[in-house]
Each structure stands twice: as C-alpha cells, then as structure tokens.
Amino acid sequence: MATAPPLEKPLSPPPAAAARERRTARRRRALREHVTAYGFLCAAVVIFALFSWWPILRNVLLALQDVNFATGNTWVGTANFTRLFRDPLLATAWRNTALFTAYALVLGFLVPFLTAVLLNEFRHARAYFRVLVYLPVMLPPVVVALMWKWFYDPGPGLINEILRTLHLPASGWLDSSSTSLVSLVIVSTWANMGTATLIYLAALQTIPGELYEAAELDGAGLWQRLRHVTVPQTRFVLLVLLLLQIVATMQVFTEPYVMTGGGPEDSTVTVMFLVYRYAFVYNDFGTASALSLLLLLVLAAFSALYLRATRGAGED
Fold first, then answer.
1. What are phi and psi of 70, to 5 degrees?
2. In this model, does residue 218 exceed pLDDT 80?
3. Rounded to two decimals, what is the model's pTM?
4. Structure confidence at residue 80 (pLDDT)
5. What mean pLDDT comes out for the span 61-86?
6. How far apart, in whole angstroms, are the C-alpha atoms of residue 153 and residue 161?
7. Residue 3 CB: number of other CB atoms within 10 A?
8. Cα 181 from Cα 187, distance rounded (Å)
9. Burial class (CB in 10 A: 0-12, 13-18, 19+), 315
10. Helix or strand or coil: residue 67?
11. What are the helix (H) ranges across the chain?
C-alpha cells in the first residue's frame, strides 16, 4: 500500500525580511496617525482663523476705508483716525473706561479672592455655597442688567426700599454722574465674580496643609497666614486673573448700554459704547473700526508690558 508523501512546511520569511515588514507596518501606522492628527489640527486652525484672525484683519481694512454698503468702500487712509481724535467724547470714553477698570480692580479682584478664602474655610455645605456664588454667572448679561436696573430704580427699587426701611436717604443711583459708574461696577462684579471665585478656590485647595500648620505653630494669625502662605502660593493664578480682568473690564459694554445708555452727562460712555455709537447710531463703520483697532493696540501693548514685568513670578 502506497503512503502519501509528507506535507511540506511553508517556507517562513527570513528574519531580516520579517523585521523589515514590521518596520514598514509601524511606519504606515505612524503615518496614518500623524495624518489624522494634523488633519484635525488643520481643521481647528482654519476655524480659528476664520472666526478670530480674519475679523481682526477685516477690522484693520475697514479702519482705513470709508465704508458704504450700497456703493462700496473707498480707501481714505488715516482719515478715520483724524476724525476720531477730533471727537471730544473720545477722551471722556477713555477716562470712563479707565475709571471703570480701576473700580473693578478694587471690587472685582479683591471680593472674589476673599470670598474664595472664606469658602475654603468651610467644612460643611461647601458645594451649596459654590453653586450659590456661581449662580449669577449662569444668568444672561442683559437679564442681570435689567434686574439691577430695577434694583437701582429711584422709586420702587429694591435698594431704595431697603434704605427707606432703615430710615436712610434714598438715592438716584443711575441718575447721578457721581454714582452711576460705581453702580455699574457693582453690577459687573456681582455678575462675574463666580468664575474667578471658583478658580481661586481650586488654587487654594492645592496649597499643602502643612504650610498652614507650620504657620500656626509659629503663632501666625489669619492675616499673617493669608499674607505669607496664601498669597505667595496662589501668586501665579492671581497675576493671570488680574490681566484677564483688566482686558475684560476695558471692553465693558452691556451694563452702560442697557442700564444708562451712556448717561447721565456721558458719565458712563465707555470705549466700546462709543464704538457702538459710531457704527450703529452714526453709521460710521470706518471710525468705529478705527476706535476698536486703537483699543486692540492699547490692550495688546498693556498685555505685553504686563507679561514682561511679571515674567517668572509664578516660578519663584
């Protein structure tokens, strides 16, 4: 009886060829991953450029043009800037904006930090108080402005009613040029302090407890612990939020627009409110673009100087 010949084993590739195949497969897989990653990155860059860089470039072009949507734009060079600097309201707008920023630093910078320090001392119901502090941030800015406009109402407003109940004189908070700007700062601080408070609170919770224990053993009180432990340990966060707050408050618009309309006696006309007037009241989009470009340059220069002055402060 004939027997079947034994099956031949398939020839395996030599080790060198197998290693080359593995390297080729790894290269192809790495290439696919890099192409996918750069594809997502390019899409993000294109979207960012379309909605951030292009409007800035477009604003620069409009600042050098006489904008007419019916007949087309014409180049006028620096004529818009010349017209802008001849407006006496420009100095008023910059002064009001600087005052608003200064007042906001006193209230809007210190109040959130001190609130975060107070919340950090709580041992119970901490989550409840976090929600309570952050709640105003979730309200639309226009709703906040309208609500506080009613609070400030010289007649049946809530604040004046409380003052009358306490037998204190009422005040026309938004009707006086001496109190209108400070009243807007209070509204802005109340509406926006929640985010800064939570950021400060997160920074405070990263401070090692041993530092506070050592300070207490050395006889340090609350003020000494705050000065020598809390502030140095959160200095980087404080510096960053200080810059962001200055940039944000220099662009204040909603509160003056909704609550005072720039009055009384132009005491609440800010730079952004003046931009709005040029664009949508005077229909002068060229001068409005020139003023917004000027604001951009001022904020960019200030940010550069601030970052240079505070370089390395968070690394000490």
1. -90, -50
2. no
3. 0.82
4. 92
5. 89
6. 10
7. 5
8. 10
9. exposed
10. coil
11. 15-48, 54-63, 79-85, 89-104, 110-121, 126-134, 141-151, 158-165, 180-204, 209-217, 222-225, 231-233, 235-249, 254-255, 271-276, 285-309
